[in-house]
Amino acid sequence: MSPLEPFGARLRRSMDERGPLCVGIDPHASLLTEWGLNDDVAGLERFSRTVVEALSERVAVFKPQSAFFERFGSRGVAVLEKTVEDARAAGALVVMDAKRGDIGSTMAAYAEAFLRKDSPLFSDALTVSPYLGYGSLSPAIEMARESGAGLFVLALTSNPEGGEVQHAVRADGRNVGATMLAHLAAENAGEEPLGSFGAVVGATLGDLSSYDLEINGPLLAPGVGAQGATPADLPEVFGAALPNVVPNVSRGVLKHGPDAGALRASADRFAEEIRAALATK
Length: 281
Ligand SMILES: O=c1ccn([C@@H]2O[C@H](COP(=O)(O)O)[C@@H](O)[C@H]2O)c(=O)[nH]1
What we know:
The structure is a single chain. The chain is of the alpha/beta class. The protein has 12 helices and 8 strands. The chain has a single domain (7-278), classed as TIM Barrel (Alpha-Beta Barrel). Helix content is 43%, strand content 14%. It is globular. It binds ligand LLZGTKA7. Residues 24, 26, 65, 97, 157-159, 200, 202, 222-223, 225-227, 248-252 line the site of ligand LLZGTKA7.
């Protein structure tokens, strides 16, 4: 099976054409209720379909949060498969937020599940956890290269608890988050226009000028909206790496549904605020 064009190149083009906003598809039980839907598989299916139909032609990336689909078992996973298929067919890229991470031999199976081109859950990129050691991600890196997919490695997460692990200082004086960024910079070296191996770096983290965020790869930035960060915070957080930032908004957009026009208006507002923030650099 022939590989896709590398994820980094496809993402760069999509960000240039549509702007960098990533909308999360996070069907929280509370959102299903607010949308007048039942907290069941039919509600899940309707919610996801509505988001994809409303936004697939204007956002660069969707990020379905696998947990909210897995909670319904195999029928929820079937909805996730269809959501990914529909979003990709409509021209958006899909980052599967499943945060997988395990010993290398098991990681190979996760890679087959999400990154092998003919897998039912194939996604353009997958979030992965490097906390069994960056080297444990090798099978996913290999499979991503083979398929033309990408990865987003948890480096500096948006939640306040993340620092306990990610700010821990190693024997060489560098902290764990910075070490993950350095691994990714090596992975992406020489790639043009953008490498396919990105980092997750929270938009909530304030000034990150002590980190080298210039990894020649995308920076997925959750935390805008419900977690309190705003598009205006992005220049301070990301500095010179700003052009490679993919800000994610989930609840901040989704709370405006189920009306498709209101979802679009909210996504457009975030997109405009992000454009304005990018223009300040
Ligand atoms: O550091 C991280 C990594 C992932 N996430 C995920 O992003 C969305 C954020 O949702 P909001 O509703 O916009 O807060 C969610 O799926 C998280 O699991 C993150 O928040 N932080």
